[in-house]
Amino acid sequence: MATAPAFNTLQLSRPLPLDCGQELAGVEIAFETYGELAADKSNAILICHALTGDQYVASEHPVTGKPGWWERTVGPGKPIDTDRFHVICANVIGSCMGSTGPASIADDGAPYAMRFPVLTIRDMVRGLVGLLDELGIDQLHTVVGGSMGGMQALSLAANFPERAARVLAIATTARHSAQNIAFHEVGRQAIMADPNWRGGNYYGDEKTPDAGLSVARMAAHITYLSEAGLTDKFGRRLQDRDAKSFGFDADFQVESYLRYQGSGFTQRFDANSYLYITRAMDYFDLAEEHGGKLADAFAGHGRDSGARFCVISFDTDWLYPTAESRHIVHALNAAGAPVSFVELSAPYGHDSFLLDVPALDRVIEGFLR
Amino acid sequence: MSMLRPDLAAIARNVAPGSRVLDIGCADGTLLSHLREHNQVDARGMEIKPELVERCVARGLSVVQGDADRDLSEYPDKAFDYTILSQTLQTAERPDRMLDQLLRVGREAFVSFPNFAQWRTRTALMFGGRMPVTRALPVSWYETDNIHHVTIADFRELIAKMDVEIEGCWFFSGERAISGIGANWRAEFAVFKLSRND
């Protein structure tokens, strides 16, 4: 990762209890806000980011200089309208954009690296709720998230039912499947097999495990797209050449694209954070946390109290397919919670939630109305 | 009330205030919105078409995209005071099983359907010799969703066989409510309110 930019951070005044049994003291949360907070604080929307996302949801990324990751959805006059809402987006703990994570300095003056405690999605949510406490926001208008952000939104609803009046969970799941875990394990093994990883103690070194992290990103990136999407975009087309090279350069456009995605990613992401966050996702099983029954996770959301839910899936998402969303919806129905669910048609696979899907805009805008 | 289709208006008049309602095949949520506003119900819906679910969500309704033939089984027993199935029974894969589900999920069920034995349909078939296309059944046989045409007499017979009680029934010709006398000949649409002792 390049030199750290200046982040807007806030230190939590209380130590954070973690699912692993440890406590994390002096936790820093880096966050961005957009739009004015109403005097009665009733218009706050918390956006939870995905695995490799960050707090720059609707503003330029300080490392890459690219626009915010959800600028098509968040901003003035957009579906999540910052003229109306006060949008908060925070970097999750364990990540590497200013919030406390494995690259942070431990008490002994050295980076935690692999001494950082293994986190869960619920721990990340505890961090976010800690931030809301510091900001004096008792109840969110809505908590929103796609992918891992959706897991956080569901976890917040389950563990802090009074903290959000609406819950919008997009392209997500209530548990990581064997296939989900398997893909993550490939990524982790790629990082740990990189000789520059050195047990995670590469901070301050000239050489960092970029090759491993890059491969991890490449493997994961495939799971975010659909086969039809890849075929449309690349097919079997060759990259800057007229014939196959009979070698192992990136002959095909799709290879070149993945390599570019992988190497670009290493500029902005910390390999150890990737290990920790994928682990948290793999550990995620909302039912397991609540006695094995998902409906019990939502027991705080009956008919007469609790949040309204909206669950959205995409027909080409094979990472968290519609069946996973239906599973969540059935549990919410069993708990008596008010829930809407829609499966949208979009060609882009899991990444559809980040891309141009007008129906998604309409559902988000309608649900927040 | 004037905004609602007559069968829906009959249902709305007979839904107790403050009750829990599941409208199956709720389309754009017209009935649910009405019930929420006028009957203060806890309004939930199921609808198969995503673009209609979208419109329901924009109305602030809680509507789940789902297939009534398959997804009703996911709701707990007696989760609702009323289940509503308007103009959808004749499209079900197995109307008898759908009625079972309606009365499992709801304490009472409203069911409305076009009556295939109305005189217009009968005469169209009798004299035309073809599958009737009438104002109540405006779509040709090859493109209609109605795979189980039903008459009021057929419906009553099924209900009796299923040990289901009829709590009320209403009949319509066009926009007009008509009496139950000769309903199987005269009515274009019927609405039944059902319950089952179990």
Going by CATH, what is the homologous superfamily of chain B? Vaccinia Virus protein VP39
Terminal Cα span of chain B: 34 Å
By oligomeric state, this entry counts as heterodimer
How many domains comprise the coordinates of chain A?
2
Record the strand order, biggest sheet of chain B. Answer: 3-2-1-4-5-8-6-7
| Corresponding CATH architecture of chain B | 3-Layer(aba) Sandwich
CATH architecture field of the largest domain in chain A:
3-Layer(aba) Sandwich
Strand content of chain B: 25-35%
Number of domains of chain B: 1
Q: Tell me, what is the CATH class of chain B?
A: Alpha Beta
Query: What would the average pLDDT of chain B be, to the nearest integer?
Result: 94
- Given as residue ranges, the uncertain stretches of chain A (5+ residues, pLDDT < 50) are none
Which structural class best describes the helix and strand composition of chain B? alpha/beta
CA-atom Rg of chain A in angstroms: 20 Å
The CATH homologous superfamily of the largest domain in chain A is termed Alpha/Beta hydrolase fold, catalytic domain
- Looking at the structure, the CATH topology of the largest domain in chain A is Rossmann fold
Distance between the termini of chain A: 40 Å
Which bin fits the share of residues in helices of chain B? Answer: 25-40%
